Structures are given as C-alpha cells and as structure tokens.
Amino acid sequence: MEAAMGLMRRMPPRHSETTLSALLSLLPRHSSDLLSQVDLPLQVLSYVDSGKKFILCEYNRDADSYRSPWSNKYHPPLEDAPYPSSKLRQLEIEANDIFTVYCEQYYEGGISSVYMWEDDNEGFVACFLVKKDGSKTGQGRRGYLEEGTWDAIHVIEVGPEEEIIRYCLTSTIMLSLTTDDVSSGTFSLSGSIRRQMNMNLPVADGHLSNMGKMIEEMEGRLRNSLDQVYFGKTREMVCTLRPPSEVVQMRLPSS
C-alpha cells in the first residue's frame, strides 16, 4: 500500500486515473483504501434545470449519483440518498455563495463547489473545491496555455461545537499545463502537492470566517511551494541546459 501511494504521488495528474485503475487490478484487497486516499482530477457536470455547473468528487457522490450544491438534488435521481441537516445545508449555501466570489477574485474565474456533511464526532466536514481551466479555449484570459488545469481540494474536519473549535485542513493541488507556440515551443509540466494544517479558533468568529482564513493561508503556501519546486527547478534545468545567449557570450573566450 505504501509503495502504491508513493507511485501515485509521482505520477502526473493527467495519468492518475489510468494508474489508479491499474493499481486496483493489482491490489484488489486495498481497493477501499486506494479509493479513499487517492485524489483524482476533478470533473464538472452542468445542472440541467438551472444550467449551473458543479464539481463531481467522492464527497458528493452516492452510488452513481452526484449531489448538486445549488439544488441539493442528486443527478441522476437517487432514492434514500444522504443529505446534510437543514442547519448544515444553510451553512453550505452561504459557503457556496462566498466561495464563488473567492474563486473569481483569486482565480479570475473557474468553477467552485462546497459540500458539507455530518461526521461521527458531533462535528462536521466541509469540502471546498475549485477547478480552473486555464487553456486558450477555456477560462484562460491571457491565452498563453494550449492546455492548463488547476484542481484544488480542501477538506476541513470541524470539531464539536465549543468556544474554541479545532479545525483540521487537508489540501491537495493538482496542476497540469502545456504550451505550444513559437516563442516557448512545446512544453508540458504537471504535478500535485498535499499539505495539512491544524488550528484552534474561536467559534465566535464564525465557521465560514475561520475556514476561509485557513484556506486562503494554505493556498498561498501551496502556490509558493509549486513555484519553488516545479517552476523554480524547471527554470534552473532549462537555464543550465540552454543558457541565455548573453550568458553564452560571457563564457566564450575573447579573441
């Protein structure tokens, strides 16, 4: 199981579904563990009645149906499906409205969804999702990328209702991009990163405020890590293998 998870961490996100399918065939005894621990690129479904899109994931799925955060209905319809309590559903509605604004402010567009459900410890769990298609044909406003996808998954476990509540955040970012033009040539880069954060915060500030602060801080950390690990190392390798012309001229012996 440890080796399988190590392999999944090293595979590009675009190949994660194929890799997971192969591992499930090789390790059928660990299928439940693999399905619960492996994050796959997010999929999107358009709600037929309103035309609003929402994100599909394990957290809003029951059998082969997915619950919309906008209508609170399953698609396709499902009998005896689980739903959040009325109080939690109201919090879920507010979170979706706020996170839509957050998505527009930070991502310049994209699709967001928030799902909440009760847990067994008298608390609840919230899942905040963002999918941004940054390609020329998608939501990329600058037109630099032939293909580009950013998938953000933030799962927050909220403790029982007390004056000081413990929040446990697990965040995963999956990034994939491809360029294909005259200036940059054909270039592909993809990877994923996962981090955790625990905080004890006063309930008086409100759940949405507390969770929002944690997500904002975590996304800042993850963006910096991706910039240093993926883009920084890639830039270092490219400049080493193909140094800029001015560097080459400096290294040439003078005649």
UniProtKB/TrEMBL annotation:
<dbReference type="GO" id="GO:0051016">
    <property type="term" value="P:barbed-end actin filament capping"/>
</dbReference>
<dbReference type="GO" id="GO:0000902">
    <property type="term" value="P:cell morphogenesis"/>
</dbReference>
<comment type="similarity">
    <text>Belongs to the F-actin-capping protein beta subunit family.</text>
</comment>
<dbReference type="InterPro" id="IPR043175">
    <property type="entry name" value="CAPZB_N"/>
</dbReference>
<comment type="function">
    <text>F-actin-capping proteins bind in a Ca(2+)-independent manner to the fast growing ends of actin filaments (barbed end) thereby blocking the exchange of subunits at these ends. Unlike other capping proteins (such as gelsolin and severin), these proteins do not sever actin filaments.</text>
</comment>
<dbReference type="GO" id="GO:0030036">
    <property type="term" value="P:actin cytoskeleton organization"/>
</dbReference>
<dbReference type="InterPro" id="IPR042276">
    <property type="entry name" value="CapZ_alpha/beta_2"/>
</dbReference>
<keyword id="KW-0009">Actin-binding</keyword>
<dbReference type="Pfam" id="PF01115">
    <property type="entry name" value="F_actin_cap_B"/>
</dbReference>
<dbReference type="InterPro" id="IPR019771">
    <property type="entry name" value="F-actin_capping_bsu_CS"/>
</dbReference>
<comment type="subunit">
    <text>Heterodimer of an alpha and a beta subunit.</text>
</comment>
<keyword id="KW-0117">Actin capping</keyword>
<dbReference type="GO" id="GO:0005737">
    <property type="term" value="C:cytoplasm"/>
</dbReference>
<dbReference type="GO" id="GO:0051015">
    <property type="term" value="F:actin filament binding"/>
</dbReference>
<dbReference type="InterPro" id="IPR001698">
    <property type="entry name" value="CAPZB"/>
</dbReference>
<dbReference type="GO" id="GO:0008290">
    <property type="term" value="C:F-actin capping protein complex"/>
</dbReference>
<keyword id="KW-0007">Acetylation</keyword>
<protein>
    <recommendedName>
        <fullName>F-actin-capping protein subunit beta</fullName>
    </recommendedName>
</protein>
<dbReference type="InterPro" id="IPR037282">
    <property type="entry name" value="CapZ_alpha/beta"/>
</dbReference>
<keyword id="KW-0963">Cytoplasm</keyword>
<keyword id="KW-0206">Cytoskeleton</keyword>
